Amino acid sequence: MNTGLEGNYVLKQNKKLALGYTTGSCSAAAAKAAAKMLFTGERQDFVDLMTPKGILLHLEVLEQEFTQEAARCAVKKDAGDDPDVTNGVLVYARVSRGRPKEIMRKHNMNSAYIYILGGVGVGRVTKPGLEQDVGEAAINQVPRRMIREAVVQVCEEQGYGGDITVEISIPEGVELAKKTFNPRLGIEGGISVLGTSGIVEPMSEAALIETIRMEMQMKKNNGAAYLLAAPGNYGMAYLSAHASFSLEQAVKYSNYVGELIDFGVEMGFSGILMVSHIGKLIKVAGGIMNTHSRNGDARMELLAANALLAGAERETLIKILEAITTDEGLAILKREGLLEMTMKHVMEKVHGYLDHRAYGHLRIGVIAFSNEWGELGQAGPVEELTKALAEEGNI
After folding, report:
1. Which 8-state DSSP code applies to residue 298?
2. Are 180 and 174 in contact, with CB atoms under 8 Å apart?
3. pLDDT tens per residue, range 1-54
4. How far is CA 156 from CA 70, 136, 143, 159, 161, in A?
5. Smallest Cα–Cα separation from 90: which of 167, 182, 149, 173?
6. What is the distance between the alpha carbons of residues 90 and 69, in angstroms, rounded to a whole number?
7. What are φ and ψ of residue 369, in 5° steps?
8. DSSP string for 43-83
9. Cα 290–chain centre separation
10. Alpha carbon distance 135, 268 (integer Å)
11. Is there a contact between 25 and 197 (Cβ–Cβ < 8 Å)?
């Protein structure tokens, strides 16, 4: 079947990797098809959906059923060559006229509303701090907008201006959620409906690691003895905001802390200065050298353990363990006057694990920061490394 993604791919290590489409795209496409069935009383074997990425999808509509009151159908998720746990699941949408019995978040559609609900297999938010409010279905903002726009398009075509209720369900999501960190994040009962572009762009792990290696080797071949490194967008944004650092010279190492250190030793670098958001760096304080969530979380546990060393009381530790984000945990520590001492312990452990990984063959400095609190701490010979990088013209 021609989905509209034919000819669209990403190239990694000279290998073409097929694109896929998100659960958000599946939800919007199913909702659009169900709305058409509701108003026309006709089967919709295929549905077209324009994604925020600008790619027009042409998707098969499965398991169609409809009456005068409601219509329901499914679209099958295809993650392309991305190793996505939701690949192949059926995403259902049920569309009906009128308002739901329970009052949920309302979306304006001229003078009427579109109510977007989560059914079986779609998680529900139980803790504050996430994109949706407590009690809401875990359907993120972009998928909600996609669903709304798709249904509005059908309503306008059919001349309907009343209320509409859309219920998204992913029956397999109940079991799939057990393979995710959703329960830890305060999302219960299913998976989240995600996607900011509507398209899944696969990332080959081996290719990404090789890209990091190649960038480091290039710098080494050009005479660099020291490296400035950041994991991703947050780290790069921090570097760009500080005049003493050059964004262009930093190596972006993603989640691969261990590989960064290993390559540095292997290539004979003298030192690495790492600048990282605490959300990733806190994991290194527990010896976690791949900071991707699928390999381990333990952010709050590690923050709480170091807060205990800083003198935190039981009630404070409980609050930290119940926090969803590291910034929320830091705010608790700040209120209790324990942030500075906790970060001292964290940074000592981070540097200890990094130094152990390098077996003493690298001088490693670390700067930790958060978006809300700025710089949180340093460890290792940061000043010396900063000077060495400046002399090489790397900052």
Report:
1. -
2. no
3. 566 676 666 655 566 778 899 999 999 999 999 999 999 999 999 999 999 999
4. 18, 27, 20, 5, 7
5. 173
6. 23
7. -145, 170
8. --SEEEEE-TTSPEEEEE-EEEEE-SSEEEEEEE---TTS-
9. 15
10. 53
11. no
